[in-house]
Amino acid sequence: xxxxxxxxxxxxxxxxxxxYMVETYPEYNIIVLDKMTYAxxxxxxxxxxxxxxxxxxxGDIADEQTVERVFxxxxxxxxxxxxxxxxxxxxxxxxxxxxQTDVVGVYILLEACRKLGVQRFHHVSTDEVYGSIPKGFxxxxxxxxxxxxxxxxxxxGELMVRAYWVTYGLHTTVTRGSNTFGPYQYPEKVAPxxxxxxxxxxxxxxxxxxxxxxxxxxxxxxxKAIDVVLHRGEAGEIYNVGGENERHxxxxxxxxxxxxxxxxxLIKHVADRPGHDRRYALTNxxxxxxxxxxxxxxxxxxxxxxxxxxxxxxxxxxxxxxxEYLEYYKKQYAERLANAD
Length: 341
Ligand code: NAD
Ligand code: TYD
Prior knowledge:
Elements: E1 3-7, H1 12-24, E2 29-34, E3 54-58, H2 64-73, E4 78-81, H3 88-93, H4 96-116, E5 120-126, H5 149-168, E6 171-177, E7 179-181, H6 190-199, E8 204-207, E9 213-218, H7 219-232, E10 237-241, E11 246-248, H8 249-260, E12 267-270, H9 285-291, H10 299-312, H11 314-317, H12 324-338
Parallel strand pairs: 1-2, 1-4, 2-3, 4-5, 5-6, 6-10, 7-9, 8-12
Antiparallel strand pairs: 9-11
Helix pairs in contact: 1-7, 2-4, 4-5, 6-8, 8-10
């Protein structure tokens, strides 16, 4: 492994992974390929901008010519694929881009690996491919029952990864991470959205009763798990990456308000997300048994530090809340908030 292509490296988790890899492995060259959608942000990569082992390429993983050029020019031997349309609510409003990037894009990357002899492919997937689980924990062999267009697209991409291992012997691995949070997360996902809205004393639109459960994983833990699987994962294998922090949405929301010293009256119960998964939970038993890996972050401490990061870094998120973001906000929330309890 020497020249690692990180697709989607200008997004939230991808950029954290790039910052981590550039610093941890000066002997590797880290090349980012990112389409720079609304979620791609070059500011996320400012900390590595001048590092000699970092390069940036703007381009679409679903564009065969671009992918092949980047593979050849940078002598890519390893791909870590973060590139995706990643927000469930946007997938409900408009699924097209999800199928295009999360399924077709993955296929184009895999095919370029096959054609150009790239032997290592790590795919970043999500616990959402399993669907919802009322009690207990998903394990890697469980059936996939994705419920949103986002989750279904991620499942489709993953299955194509599996086919390239089984059919062509490409050395693939997959991680299924749980809900990830931390600095530099685009303010549409619930944590940064609620933090930044609460800073401005704006209403927090909590879907339904707020009793849905998510398993929260700190972004640094997620990146370290991917590093472990990239270096030690077995070909064709899938690994859950859970945070081991199950929380009800309402409790996460109240913690955010508490850390900001804001009133719970900002919480507005609004119309639920269609097809809303009630609970996500997965076991880390396989990562623990195979690599002795477990998440190392205390949830409340990390959430508080994340809140502090957004308070201190208004320069980063304020400019994101304009233009297309406001259009999306209107579509997603205007009617819901107007009809809130
Ligand atoms: P993000 O939306 O913050 O970033 C996605 C990045 O991919 C952006 O930089 C965007 O410009 C880029 N991109 C989108 N389409 C592209 C294309 N066609 N070609 C090249 N680049 C493209 O997402 P994130 O939260 O950082 O998630 C990264 C990966 O992790 C995704 O694959 C997602 O499914 C997965 N994941 C996310 C979470 C989470 O809680 N955020 C949890 C588990 C897994
Ligand atoms: P989100 O951050 O969109 O992640 P995911 O849907 O991938 O789990 O949402 C996390 C939880 O928060 C989910 O149960 C939906 C809920 N949520 C709200 O209640 N209101 C919101 O405005 C958003 C964005 C999410």
